[in-house]
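Margin note from the TA: students keep mixing up input and output lines. Inputs are the sequences; the output is the structure of the whole complex. Example:
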Amino acid sequence: MLCMTTRLATPLATLLVAVGLTGLAACGGGATTGGTVPADADVVVKAIDGVAWNEKTFEATATDGKVTIYVENDSSIAHNMYVLDANEKVQGDYVDLPTKSSHDTRVLPLAPGTYHIVCKVPGHNNMNATLTVK
Ligand SMILES: [Cu+2]
């Protein structure tokens, strides 16, 4: 009986490790690698070298009250992206951009007004762009 338990334990452990690794890969912060900009993107935001966004100001026209934001990491260091309203309240889910070409899309219900697109990595205060929603 003990022998049987030992023989079962190794394949089970291997299976658990495999499941664990798959789970990790699937939960990589919500960003995936190697995609293209969705055709319906209202705003395309890119983190670029020099700890900056590709633009200081962005403009978008909401469709049915929603704005589709595509964000991509085109730099060599990790970033994230948060959309804040005028009161610094985070809008929807943030996007983690751990490596170059990490990207994701957010469809956010945003009323017309002024928002900020920021990166909250410490020291990345320069990454604060204005998003005007019409
Ligand atoms: Cu950053």
